[in-house]
Amino acid sequence: MSDINPVHIIGGGLAGSEAAWQCANLGVPVILHEMRPERGTDAHKTDGLAELVCSNSFRSDDAEYNAVGLLHEEMRRSNSLIMREGDASAVPAGGALAVDRDIFSAGVTRALEEHPLITIDRGEVTLPDPSWDSVIIATGPLTSPALAEEIRKIGGEDQLAFFDAIAPIIYKESIDFDTVWFQSRYDKGSGTDYINCPMNKDQYLTFIKVLLEADKTEFKDWEKDTPYFEGCMPIEVMASRGPETLRYGPMKPVGLTNPYSDEKPYAVVQLRQDNALGTLYNMVGFQTKMKYGAQGDVFRMIPGLERAEFARLGGLHRNTFINSPRLLDKMLRMKARPAWRFAGQITGCEGYVESAAVGLMTGRFAAFERLGIPYAAPKETTAMGAILSHITGGADAKTFQPMNVNFGLFPPLENEAEVVKGHKGKDKSRAKKKAMSARALVDLESWTTPDIKRAA
After folding, report:
1. Which string of DSSP letters, residue by residue, matches 51-113?
2. Which CATH superfamily, name and number, covers 7-160+321-455?
3. What is the pTM of this model?
4. How far is CA 72 from CA 134, 372, 444, in A?
5. Where are the domains of the chain?
6. N or C: which terminus of the chain carries fewer CB neighbours within 10 A?
7. Tens of pLDDT, residues 154-175
8. Cα 390 from chain centroid?
9. What distance in Å separates the CA atoms of residue 433 and residue 422, rounded to the nearest whole number?
10. Distance separating alpha carbons of residues 350 and 403, to the nearest angstrom
11. Which CATH number describes the domain made up of 166-318?
12. Which pLDDT score, from 0 to 100, does residue 230 have?
């Protein structure tokens, strides 16, 4: 074992496994702490590292036109263990990357067990030892209560474990601005902080009926004792209390004037900017537990959203994540305790690949810090950099919720007008995505190769 002090990584899921691999391959020893099988969870079935407990899909593998496919390619170019074993265990899935979950987990486990700089410690860590001067917390949505409580005390957050009902997020460019308008209720703030989608009485009552009849997600037995997050009640639950409930809640029409009609709206759906770039808008108060297939049909009934494209659909599940924009710095260190870094779903990223990508970045940051080599974050123009920017400041800390990677998180193209010239509709969108992907892979080179050579 190296004479360099080890980095301690808590959690052997996708993020922790990737972080360990990155650290060790840069010459920094790692002790990877995984509580299974000493202590199991209600979701995991094996003691394998990087066990996939939900889907076996890593989603689209299209690196030109899909943001998660681009993330796949960036990780491959960054020597990702998760992507290497994902490719090795791939099963037929069209344009997506799906894996045989047992082969995948076995491959990750074997690679980490065989690495000379990685020690796997099977046992629960409820609190990092005070002597550990470099810690990566990658405990995911099932963080132990003791550790969650310690994080809460240090970070000052009120809640860490709850049902986080998530509202859908819409690409701004897919909204019909011939129907909707910018205005804040009673013109507060800048006066134009919200996008407003008006409904007449018939539209509203039809919407409520369809909303209540839509398919909903059912909870697992082990989730049923977890309360709703205060202030994030699913819209279907509110609507079930009476047909007028939403008109006096998130859909109240007061303080607004429709510039396109003299008719006063009977109800209004508001959208609020969700990222610093202004490319994404969330549906205010529209947390939902509707199944994904139903959400598009129901929400596209809303005037102005008939052709809405969703960067993220709504959802409701037990989760544990920190308010990263408030608590973490750009290198994923906890501001109040810089020896602790965070990785994976606990940071507020969403999805297998996103969690592993944050683990990849965190592992590199910790390794280079240990080696005393200056190291920058990836550029925001890359998929990894876009995720990092979002969870460490690009998102609004007041409304921060888990997010998948999507092109709405990327800075606009400097030559966008030239890129989209001559394109219309979907072709215009595809041209932009292809150009963003090409830019990302060019900018990734300056983040990976030179620093790896310096550390070798």
Report:
1. ---S-SEEEE--TTT-HHHHHHHHHHTTT-HHHHHHHHTEE--TTEEEE-HHHHHHHHHHHHH
2. FAD/NAD(P)-binding domain (3.50.50.60)
3. 0.77
4. 28, 29, 13
5. 7-160+321-455, 166-318
6. C
7. 876 654 545 556 788 899 999 9
8. 9
9. 15
10. 5
11. 2.40.30.260
12. 44
Is 104 within 8 Å of 89 (Cβ atoms)? yes
Other beta carbons within 10 Å of 22:
25
Which of 253, 429, 164, 399 has its CA nearest to residue 390? Answer: 399
Tokens for 234?
A: 């699913």
Instruction: State the residue for tokens 């932009």.
Output: 432
**Within 10 Å of residue 397's Cβ, how many Cβ atoms?**
11
What is the four-CA torsion angle of 371, 354, 115, 28, rounded to 10 degrees?
A: 10
The letter for the amino acid at 444 is L
Write down the residue that tokens 């509203």 correspond to.
204
- Rounded CA gap, 141 and 147, in Å? 12
Pairwise CA distance, residues 361 & 364, whole Å: 5
Q: How far apart are CA 284 and CA 393, in angstroms?
A: 20
Residue range 174-226, pLDDT digits in tens: 999 999 999 988 888 788 888 999 999 999 999 999 999 998 876 555 445 54
| Among the listed residues 134, 154, 153, 148, the one whose alpha carbon sits nearest the alpha carbon of residue 9 | 134
Q: How far apart are CA 74 and CA 334, in angstroms?
A: 26
Q: Cα–Cα distance between 406 and 238 in angstroms, integer?
A: 30
Q: Which amino acid is at 448?
A: T
Residue numbers of the chain with a pLDDT score lower than 70? 1-2, 37-45, 54-55, 142, 156-165, 218-232, 316-319, 449-456
